[in-house]
Amino acid sequence: MAGRAAPDPLARVGGGLKVTEPEASAECLNKTTDEARFGDSMPDVKAIDTLFPIILKDWFDSWKAATNSPGELHCMVENTWKPFNSPEELIAEMDRTGVESVLATDLLAWSYKRQTRFAKDYRDKIYELSKKYPGRIYGLADYNPLNISESLRELERDVRDRGFVGVYVHIYGFDIPLDDRRMYPLYAKAEELGVPVQMQTGYVLEAMPSEHGRPMALDRISLDFPDLVLVGTHTGYPWVDELIAVSMKLPNVYVSISAWLPKYFHPSLVSYLKSRISADKVIFGSNGLAWGRYLDQMKELGLPEENLRKILYDNAKRIFKLDAH
Q1: Superfamily of domain 42-324
Q2: Which one of 1, 5, 126, 159 is at 20 to 30 Å from 189 when CA atoms are compared?
């Protein structure tokens, strides 16, 4: 990537990097207002956020405690995720910024160093919120490849009984690749249930090996499960071209532009977003980044209007079958 400026370490969420640049510190670390959390702008487009960590304060505090534990990389996530004090505050900000719905996850990340989950299990709370705010908050289920049978029972419960619309996988701390045999029971069950599996691809900022996030793994998984919708999140960086290539090759593989502000998108991704092909193969997710700021920057990319609408809204509605819920 010679000649390309290094990404801002706060351009994506996930923790693990210390901020040293004065501009980054002034812009993000010293702000405590709603503008620091979400940005000033009220976008004139509507969006569905397909990857939203459920950053209510108690969940956020559990994540912060984990990522600042001995053996972990010092995590700056608490300076980029500004927790909501109440569900009402979350819904109000969605209304203000034009976010119609969020797909909420409790991010089952597994510590590579300590071999335990990071944040608290928040699926019951997500279910509670989905009932209180139907059509606004949907749930994403978890999967633990170290506890397969129980995970599959819980997945079936969350989808069939609780109306969760997909699964989110954070593979790195488990220290296995996405196409490992222990992941195949998940893919088989998700295909049976008819729900997409989102998985973080690309490198990881926590103290975990990044190699397991290579997007090319989706190639094999897709061929083995042709009726399963697969979504590679976090743009696949630094393997952006891999994720784009797999999504172009296979009809059931999609790209999520989550976790990176648009002004830091890799040039290959920007070109892809402007193409006719991408209009149906890309979805939006914030991973907790400021909605107003993110959506403003999306409009500044100069995408065709149809592409922008599909990426921010239509594709998510179709892929996750939200009209059926």
Answers
A1: Metal-dependent hydrolases (3.20.20.140)
A2: 126
